[in-house]
Structure formats: C-alpha cells, structure tokens
Amino acid sequence: EKAIREKKKVTIRYFHLNEHREKVYRSENGIHTVEPIALVYNNDRYYLTCYNPTADRNYNYRLDRIEWVEILDEQISKNAVIRSRSVAKYTAQVFRMYGGTPEKATLLFDAQMIDYIYEKFGMDTKIRPCEDDNFTTNVDVQLSPTFWGWVFQFTGKMKITAPEWVREEYIEMLKKAIGEQT
Length: 182
Description:
Radius of gyration: 18 Å
Number of helices: 6
Largest sheet: 5 strands, antiparallel
Distance between the termini: 50 Å
Helix content: 25-40%
Strand order of the largest sheet: 6-5-4-1-7
Shape: globular
Structural class: alpha+beta
C-alpha cells in the first residue's frame, strides 16, 4: 500500500505451486521488479496489480503468493501512473464473470498450468499426472465466454478433453472466431 501511495517500484519474490502444492519459482528465484498500481480484492483473494513496461500490460500477483516485498527508491513509469487511473475499468474486464451452463469438464494441461488450476478451482482440486509431463483434472465449470476465454489464453497448454460435446462446442466457437464455416 505504501509503494502504491508513493508511486514507487517494488521488488517481490513470487511463487507458483506444483502438483504437490510445493512452491516453484519460475525466474531468478521468483524475484521480480514491478510497478504496483493497485490492490484488488476479488473472489476472496487480494491481488497486486502491476504495470509491466516491457510488455506494456498489467499483471496480477496473488498477495498470498508474494513472500516478501522491498520498496525501491525509484518512481513508477508515466505509463504506470496512467494505468493506475483506469484500474476500475481494468479490474472489471479481468475479474468479471459471466454465468453459463454448469458442467463437469476434464482438462489436460502441462505443468506450467498447475498454478492456474489451483487459482481458478481451489487448492482442493485433484490433479493427476499423465504421460508426457501432462496433468489432468475434472472440474465444475460454467460454460460461458469467460470459461472459453480462460482456456484459450493458455495457447494450447490446456485442452478440454471431456465431455466430447463440450469439446466440440469449444471447437465450433474457435472456428467461428476465425471465420470458418461450421
């Protein structure tokens, strides 16, 4: 909060979880220098929203996955300040949920996606290993644009494998998105 108020960059140590619920650090021991612009509360969790000037986009870090924070004596960029003024709009787009048809779906994904599964469906989600360093889980989802978009964002690292009709509906939606006739 202090860094956000003072518009200062911070260094954080951030982790993800593997299939054994063990901490995993993806880059340089999980150390990131970020430009914090807001704290957001959504779905019983707090997130630190930060601007990344290299990618020119915002990222969300779950607060309970940040091990430590160090406030730097360096101001956030002008673009981060501009982004901080539109946090309400950004959070509405990122965290908004649309209702849909409830369904039990089976997902196949690689190890990098484990953290996203826990984040989306909870820490009690049963994850099972399968071949080629992939994992699978059965989860309750709402078939909606939010769910389809959530799967799509992982660019092939996560796939819907069952039920077949859900898989086919997703494929039809993707064909429509690129203008193919169904």
